[in-house]
């Protein structure tokens, strides 16, 4: 296959560009003294409005082991008529048909993730999301049971931290999470015991845990665009290995995140279609993000987080700050704060 000019133009950034971008980001953090307080601005990880970000991802499916599921990740340009932003479309078809290979006992999965971020001046490039509480995703879902996957530079390289991607269109398969494994025909009791020996984790059940932030359904479709933003707490992810929940559970190594992706392992035959606009780390919806959130998500937009708005300070402290002169930034401010 000969690469087209469009593919070549969308190729991921090279070594020097990656190094320059990371040095610029770290310099801004140091200059603005962001390491001394909880960040109020988002840390964008994958912005699929950039076609090169889509080109920098890879898809996976059970075809690698002889299965029949398919997976594609395509760049979709912005559509002003529907106010839809440029984004990535993850689509294909799930098939649970087994290949003629006696070693393969289970198929029916598809996924995508970003490729390794490559090297920069100081070695392997990772995302450092330690100062943030949530992983945010802006998506338009068909309701299937997708899973968000995070891989870090852990000792066990095949470990993946997972959390269900809950949306307003999420299809609940049973009345409760306890009934799910016994009622879903695609899973046998033996397989359920192997997958979840200690019971199905709350983060992987069909019922969203209270810690997941998502828009509240109004029961109407007026003013909705289909897009919605979901915030998943990092401490809610479950450690798995080769699809199995493993013990002991450990927290995500947020300082060294290698890849982020989305998979579909519900083993329900048929097509799937998930649109993804952006993935970022955050401590809550900020006022700077609110305009974009309302423009894209419409009536399903998340409100501004009051903690982010006030910088997690008391109302008295905020009022004093509002009356004070504009705060200094940079190294001088850092020195002044240290000397207080």
Automatic annotation (TrEMBL):
Annotated spans, Disordered: 307-340
Pfam family, one: CIA30
Composition bias, Polar residues: 311-322
Keywords: Chaperone, Mitochondrion
GO cellular component: mitochondrion
Protein location: Mitochondrion
Annotated family: Belongs to the CIA30 family.
Any one Gene Ontology molecular-function term assigned to this protein's record: unfolded protein binding
Official protein name in the record: Complex I intermediate-associated protein 30-domain-containing protein
Domain NADH:ubiquinone oxidoreductase intermediate-associated protein: residue ranges: 47-172, 225-276
UniProt-listed InterPro entries: Galactose-bd-like_sf, NADH-UbQ_OxRdtase-assoc_prot30, NDUFAF1
Compositional bias of kind Basic and acidic residues: 323-340
Family matches, as PANTHER family: COMPLEX I INTERMEDIATE-ASSOCIATED PROTEIN 30 (PTHR13194), COMPLEX I INTERMEDIATE-ASSOCIATED PROTEIN 30, MITOCHONDRIAL (PTHR13194:SF18)
